[in-house]
Structure formats: C-alpha cells, structure tokens
Amino acid sequence: MTNNEKLDFILTRSSVRRFSSSLTPEETETLLRAAMSAPTAMDYQPWHFVVVNDNAVKDRLRSFLPYAKMINENCTGIVVCGDISLYEEVSKRDGEDNTLYWVEDCSAASENLLLAAHALGLGAVWTGIFPLESRISKLRETLSLPENIVPLNLILAGHPAASGRVKDKFNKSKIHYEKF
To answer: What pTM does this model have?
Structure first.
C-alpha cells in the first residue's frame, strides 16, 4: 500500500459476491448519484439504470446470466444500460460510428458505482452482459428494455456477508513507454 489513504482506498476495492442484505432505497440512490457523476463523451450521459429488488426477477436473471448465480434476496441488482440512439446524429455528422462511446461512458459510471459501494462499506461485483447477444436479448425481454437501450452489465450490491479478496494487480510487464 501507499501512504495516501485516498489512493489506498482505490487499491483496496474488491469484488464481493456474498451479501447479508440488499441496499436500502437511500443507499441505492447514493450509488446511482455516484455513477451519474462519471465522465462522459460529449456530455451525453447515455446511462440508464434498472434497479432489481423483486425476487422473481432475480430468479429469472440467475437462470440465464452465468456469472450472476449469486443474485438472491440478500442483494440489489443494478443493470447498467446505455442509450445508443444518442450517438446516431453525431455519427451521421462525423461519418464514423460513434455509437460505442456508450460502452466507455457506462463503464466509467459502473466503476464509480463500485467505488461508491466500497466507500459506504457495502459490497458489489460487476457481472458481464455486453456484447453477448444471447444475454442482451434475454435481459431486453425480462426487463422490457426498448431497442435503443443496451445492457452493459449487472452490478450486484448489498451489505457484505464476507469480504472480497483484495488483489495486487500491478504488473510491470504491462507497462510500455513511448512504444510497445
């Protein structure tokens, strides 16, 4: 660790997969406020969030999301989605496909949400959805998502039943200067 408690805070975030209870409405709103404070290309703020607390919906999600098997009554699910229609006009204007900026923007929002959960002493884990069409289509159907709204991930959050394992992921071999 470092001698900087704010930096150490980032270095000690871990994925939590076991929860003792779901989020309160106030905790959920705080996490979503943090998520929506993320940087965003052209300030489009393409994110939409579907909060899942209903156990029947959680059961359905568990049935087709292989990395979200731990979703249950003890956690809150937050599906982070992006509105791809926001980028259509700028793509036409620029003559290039800008629609994938939503992935970067929603990824930044997701990381903010994960860090906010850690700051509040909560646990959270990112589970993947995009770009797998089988997961996207089943989520679209389950959550009644419009065609222009694409799910990026499902974040499970709640009060941790067990701590996540902090990993030192620093690897000097992944750093390159001036050229690869």
So the answer is: 0.94
